[in-house]
Automatic annotation (TrEMBL):
UniProt name for this protein: Large ribosomal subunit protein bL25
Region (Disordered): 199-228
InterPro entries listed in its UniProt record: Rbsml_bL25/Gln-tRNA_synth_N, Ribosomal_bL25/Gln-tRNA_synth, Ribosomal_bL25_b-dom, Ribosomal_bL25_C, Ribosomal_bL25_long, Ribosomal_L25_dom, Ribosomal_uL5_bac-type
Role summary: This is one of the proteins that binds to the 5S RNA in the ribosome where it forms part of the central protuberance.
Keyword Ribosomal protein listed: yes
Bias kind Basic and acidic residues: ranges: 209-228
GO-annotated biological processes: translation
Amino acid sequence: MSAVKTLEAVARDRVGKGAARAVRRQGQVPAVVYGGGQPPQSIAIDLVRARTLIYAGGFKTTLFEIKAGGKTVRAIPRDFQLDPVSGVPLHVDFLRVVSGQTVTVEVPVHFINEAAAPGIKKLGGTLNIVAHTLTLEVAPDQIPDAIEVDLTGREIGDVIHVADIKIPAGSHTGEPTDPVANIVPPTVLGAEVEAEEAAIAEAQSAESAEEKAEEASEDGEKKDGEEA
């Protein structure tokens, strides 16, 4: 399960575009904590810290203890905005979580033991991933870092469904029959390309031979004319 991380923040009294710009000029990112039956709380977090957390991955599945204004609140990121050019964080929304509450999160799917799948290791098949993440309804302190799919014994043609894998915690919001991945046969594209290249080379060789024959014929005609 993802560990709860501490996040230091500063409480904000002023809100609005002007106040947000002032916060950014100070090297911070404006943010808001909402939900849990309480009024929204405006805060500011360090820009470097925010950028590091966002780009490290798993930001939206991490539970934070946010310390601001002498109070500590547990919250999970719901959304964030990045500058479209520089990629710098512009704003973060946190959802306050309370005891007994569940949240909906996208959890990454990791495939393991690919070398133990005969369809891939021995027969040259390819793992075709259908779902890189699965949506779970789970308690905030039980969010898994990832969902592992064991490929041991998998053959070409096998289809892995949600029902075939173990969900560490929470429940999948989709259907048990939803496909996660399948193993497909080796591609024949390489053989087709080789055949096409061989055909082109053969055609070019034939054209070259034809051109040489024409040149030899022209030279013979010129020589006969000179002798006459």
